[in-house]
């Protein structure tokens, strides 16, 4: 009986925390479907209450958010896939291959995680300009991919070493090549780690603003984060349009999380179990 009562209180606690956590998002959603004249009095003021979807139409059609949304997808999807793929190859090497200075090289990869972004902006700007990749999709994708590699290698390598070595030895005895072991055995067993990394990398790139402001100057290729700044008017912020644009920017991260949450939760529970 005590266990059942404790579980009820625990669930009640989590429900209360969830509701409190969702209050700002609820306020944002309410503001996104109300006219500006009603929002200035506070989104919690429901007298009068006028609901409309014109804010979304204005944001998508007149303010160019549809193009910004497409640009974010074009930038974020490759910037998530590329570092995960190459990091998984590197992590397999660090976990299961023997070569000279392996630990030192891995330590160098970890050290790159603590380099402040602001320190490399000017060198990267000059490098991209020299290569002809400044103000291009390719340039910003390469920048995000390179900065996502250190953490991806660190996370995947630590997961790969937890796989029983007997499986690797058995596969080698059966004549499997290193790439076949990596492709047919390691990756299928690493679904939780790959899903967790995909969520983190996707959200980081999707919400990135600093790199986009520095390396992308043309409005036609700028992502949603820059588009939200452009929604801000000069004198009085149009809160109804900003709220609608902010909710639009939440769509893709929410979809990615819902698609991968099964593996993400498994990864968290596995980490807690260890």
Word description of this protein:
The structure is a single chain. It contains 13 helices and no strands. It is mainly alpha-helical. It has a single domain, classed as MetI-like (MetI-like fold), CATH 1.10.3720. Helix 3 packs across helix 13, helix 4 runs parallel beside helix 7 and helix 10 packs antiparallel against helix 13. The longest helix is centred in the last third of the chain and has 35 residues. It is globular and about 75 Å long. The relative contact order is 0.14. The mean pLDDT is 87.
What is the molecular shape?
Answer: globular
Architecture in CATH? Orthogonal Bundle
- What pattern of helices and strands is seen along the backbone? HHHHHHHHHHHHH
* Rg over CA atoms: 23 Å
Derived structural class: mainly alpha
Q: How much beta, percentage-wise? A: under 5%
Nearest-integer average pLDDT? 87
* Main pleated-sheet profile: none
> What is the percent of helical residues?
over 70%
Family: Belongs to the binding-protein-dependent transport system permease family.
Subcellular location: Cell membrane
Organism: Aerophobetes bacterium
Domain ABC transmembrane type-1: 69-260
Keyword list:
274 residues, 13 helices, membrane, transmembrane helix, MetI-like_sf, mainly alpha, Carbohydrate ABC transporter permease, MetI-like
Blueprint (SSEs and pairs):
Elements: H1 2-32, H2 36-39, H3 54-62, H4 65-96, H5 102-111, H6 117-131, H7 137-160, H8 165-173, H9 178-189, H10 191-206, H11 210-215, H12 224-231, H13 239-273
